[in-house]
From TrEMBL:
It comes from Shewanella inventionis. Pfam families: DUF3622 (PF12286). This is DUF3622 domain-containing protein. The lineage of its organism: Bacteria, Pseudomonadati, Pseudomonadota, Gammaproteobacteria, Alteromonadales.
Length: 101
């Protein structure tokens, strides 16, 4: 199972079948279901599916977070480059104004 505190696995029995839910801790008091599957014949099948699905879910989240971080860093470096360029342009404008006086 996962060591994550944010995501977890919940297995419950519904009548004669088992249901597995991947849960996400939204706040300290609120937990939501991110993914679920029901209709398992045994608890072992439900747990096996849940652990496999949770690993896939977490790896998908990690990839998504990595892409978003790269996009954020690219935008941040672009903004820094634009800011640096505008600072150089302002210096050139000030120098030109000094030449006219």
């Amino acid at each position: 199972m996962s060591d994550s505190k944010k995501y977890g696995l919940r297995v419950t029995q519904v009548e004669n079948t088992w249901k597995t839910e991947i849960t996400r801790r939204m706040t300290a008091t609120k937990t939501i279901v991110s993914k679920s599957q029901d209709g398992f014949a045994t608890e072992a099948e439900a747990i096996a599916w849940g652990e496999q699905a949770l690993q896939g879910f977490l790896s998908k989240q990690a990839d998504r977070n990595k892409r978003k971080t790269e996009k954020h860093l690219k935008a941040k470096s672009l903004a820094a480059a634009i800011a640096a360029e505008s600072a150089v342009d302002e210096d050139e404008i000030v120098d030109e104004e000094d030449d006219f006086n």
